[in-house]
Structure formats: C-alpha cells, structure tokens
Known about the structure:
The complex is a heterodimer. By secondary structure, chain A is an alpha+beta fold.
Amino acid sequence: MKAALIFTGSGPILVLTSFESLESPHFIQRLAARGISKFIAHEVPVELVQERYGKRFSVIMGDLSQNDDMRVMDVDGHHVFNSFSFEELGRPIYPPPPRKPVQEAVIEEGIESEWLWTNVDEYGSLVESSYLPMVGSHIVPAAPIEAGVRSKKARFKINRQGIIFDGSPQNLNGRKLVLHGRSSPALGRADTVTPSCTWRPADEGGWICV
Amino acid sequence: MKAAMIFTGSGPILILTSFDSLEHPTFTEKLGARGISKYIAYEVSVDKVKNLYGTRFSIILGDLSQTDDLRVMDIDGHHVLNSFSIEELGPPIYYQSH
C-alpha cells in the first residue's frame, strides 16, 4: 500500500494505491483514466495519511481492493498541500515521457479482422485478449460497465480504421480500438490468427514485434 | 532574470522575476503577499517562455523592474504544466514560510 501527493495542473490530490510503484504503467494508466496524464508525484507515509484523515482513511481503505487499485483520498489541493511538510514527502517522481502515438489499427484492404475475444475493465482497457499484443490496448471512448463489475467479456470485429463493429455488448460498436504497443509492421492487422512475427513484452511496457 | 513554475495548493503558475534566487527573502515575501506561503519552484528557461508567450512575454517583461521584482506570467495551471516537458524543469526548490 502506498499513498502519494500527485501534483496536477489543477493542484495536488492525495491518492492511495495498492500498486507497488508510482511509476507502474498500470498506476499511470489509472491516473490517465481520471484525466491526469502529466503529474509530479511524491510518496507520503501511509501511517501519516491514516493519522491525518482518520475515519475518512478507513472508509477509502474499505474501497481499495487487494490487487492493483487506486483510490482518490482528497482533491482539496490546499488541504492536501498543507497537510504534509516537505520533510514528509518522498523524492519527486516524474511520469515517463509520452510515447509516440500508438499506431492505428490497420487491416489489409478488403479484409475484416477475425473475431476478437477480450475482457474489458472499467477503464476500457483490455485485460485479457485472444491476441497477446492487444492486452493493455484500450477502447475510446471508454465503454462504461456496471458499477462493481471489474471486467466484462466482449467480442467484436474491427474495421480498417480500428472502429468496432458487430460488437457484443452492442455499446462497443462505433468505438475505436487503440492498440497498445510499438511495432513494425502495424499492429492490428488481420494476422490476429497467424502473426507474422514473434511478440515479446517491451521493457517500457507494451509489446514489441521481433 | 529567471522564469519559474511555482507549484502551489491550487496548481502551478508561471512567474518571471528579476531576483537572482527563487529563495530570496523578498521574493518569498512577494509570493506571500499573493497568498503563496508554501511552494515548490522549478526554474524554466526564459527563452522557452519567450517563445511560448510571445507578445504576452514582452508586455510582462516591460512591467518587470530590473531588480527585485516579480510578475505572474500565467495562472492557468493546466496550460503551464503542459507547456513544459519534465526534462525542461530545473531541480525542485522547496519553500515554506515559518
């Protein structure tokens, strides 16, 4: 469990997270899902947060799952900023520089993709997929799922531009699948069945075609 | 002259100053007069600010006294944060009034 002050464009917020690192791509993804794509983070001791927020801390903690999760504890920037002295802050942690825009899904002319089977989490990210490089990809705009449901099975095809059709659930239709990874050739080709290269996890996250 | 991004409780602001230090007692006093008694400052390139803000920069610069002065350049926190890459920030300077 970690607690951190996150300095954003509209002031600092205080978050609790069960991610092991504030530099974890998943943690950064969670922040991005809340509209925070650029930030400076300082870890603060969880004990101090508990001491200063008392019952509010317990309530938020009750929401926090054991695995990979994040909860916003306080969005009152002045209160957050004044609740901790500089001596109590850890070193500044900066997010990695933005990667080049992910390549758009491209399918060979006249070919539709095979059926893609995935699990989509509450943030629209693909957490399981029938095609490895798609894990970590996301659907935009995010497809809301029922409260309390962590992920939902989905099945769909994508067209040449990555637009979803024939989707189940149907509310995926018309949304766009943004593929996670960097590669050559382009991701998302119709080689979802017969990959033309070997996919390996890249050091900085995502997948690389070798 | 220096330019700096100042992180406060309500988001970063961008300032220009003719103080030679972002911890100068009169500099901190002037920020204090604007309600900022605790901050994290990151120096940024004056040239970059000039390129980013153009005429606005010239106008603000015209107001800036040659010594011991401070002018607020931009209070739009999101714009300020997104105008500079992390690599363009100097080392953090922490200040809190006693």
